[in-house]
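Board notes (copied after class):
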Amino acid sequence: VSFCTGGSSNYNADFKLFKLLYRWGTIIFSCFVCVGQVIFAMGAICNAFWLMEFGRFVFGIGGESLAVAQNTYAVSWFKGKELNLVFGLQLSMARIGSTVNMNIMGWLYWKVQDLFSSTGHTTLGIALLIGGTTCIFSLVCALILAYLDKRAEKILCKEQGKTGEVIKITDVKDFSLSLWLIFLICVCYYVAVFPFIGLGKVFFIEKFKFSSQAASAINSIVYVISAPMSPIFGILVDKVGRNIMWVICAVVGTLTSHLMLAFTFWNPWIAMCLLGVTYSLLACALWPMVAFVVPEHQLGTAYGFMQSIQNLGLAIIAIAAGMILDSRGYFFLEIFFSSCLCLALIAVVALYFVNLFRGGDLNWSARKREKLQKLAMAEKEI
């Protein structure tokens, strides 16, 4: 539900973040997340599934739009090669949260059960309420960010969201072919990662005869690896540049991982560790490229549209993956995921040649990009 909601709400959130003070957007979306989590937990306590669905609906409005606001902050505060590290750190923190959630919530449920000597929906609701305290922490961070951004605005004597251009929803029609290819890579890649992790535990139990605990451990290793590796890859891409080549390496590595899981009985830890590494690499190289191909006043729209398409793809593919799994089994599901990655590989190769023939800067070295940025700044000063 939250993916579907996010897909429709991001596009409404995108251009408003610059136009209507994105710091307020961050606070409002954080409030939606908090309220949605409380409703979700209360639905569990009351044993009302429809209320839980409504809670996820509200959560989705805030959660996915909050990601757009986060990206807007990032591209407003950091420029050029710094973006690779920033996006790596963002992914790292997100995956730390995912890993903690996957490994702590079950333990928390049993602790609540022992404390209240009860089982079932009431215990689940209380555990969800306790877990929801992280949403309050997110809201506090949004308030602190708003203060820091306001302070920086005064110190630097700039007006928030003023770029000399009018922000319009019709900016979408002006998006370049390179940007649309980036969108396609994003969708085709992530639909082969998140839905797989969602279904992965049973896959490892059925194919490799893992215990439930071992299956959970290997299924979460992708997030465990991405937490420390994302900032490392961010620094690496910052120093080297060549974003497109890194994306190609990430897609090929992820495709190799899925093929290993589909066609071999090799130790799956090898494939999953490879998936964790390549997943971290792709985010650090792909997401900053948006800032290289669109004007600053269109960044909110571009990132919002990218997030929206990604969530729409995840919502559709998650349903399709479940249907394939029920009717055909895990082997055909892995073939399906591999096909999605082949489309992503075709798109990134096409992006390479489009960028090459149009003289784009997506595959420049870090040294060349830094040199040209200094020349551009010198010309502005003159």
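Comment from the instructor: The longest helix spans residues 82-116. Residues 5-20, 160-166 have pLDDT under 50 and may be disordered.
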